[in-house]
Amino acid sequence: KSANPQWREQFDFHYFSDRKDMLDIEVWRKDNKKHEELLGTCQVDITALPTKQTNCLELPLEKHPGSLLMLIAVAPCTGVSISDLCVCPLADPGERQQISQRYCIKNSFRDIKDVGFLQVKVLKAVDLLAADFAGKSDPFCVLELGNDSLQTHTVYKNLNPEWNKVFTFPIKDIHDVLEVTVFDEDGDKPPDFLGKVAIPLLSV
Question: Residue limits of the C2 domain (predicted)?
């Protein structure tokens, strides 16, 4: 019931230089659980923003009245990565030793926000559901931890895909749950759901 809402929420997106450089924003109005209405959209060209500083932007909504006030900071991406199995970030014994020292008990209170990080090796899937008429699927895998989201490449026409990728996430809350979802890529249409697993960090 507000025409001037204040959300004051922060979202972290992993911006890689080889991805598209536009941040798309949509504002929606909810009447009830079933009815939603689009109130406007706007875009931010990430490449045009100065790095290593907080940019205060007032963004007018396209074709609709109103504007959004946002703070956007573009900083070097730390603590998150996607790599192949052969160059796994924790494969080096020297690096593992540094990590053990960094998170040992005597250093627990050195940086309270540095809870740790999670490394996930996504190897393969077996006997997936066939989503195409030809009896195949085009599966890819999405990993979500808190507001962080990373995904694998798509393996086309395969019910037993092998991704062999290593994903590294910074952990902000030890009570978070890692959600791994498999989708079937469907061209310009929304992807089809093939399955999901949820893993609480405290169970690892």
Answer: 1-59, 93-204
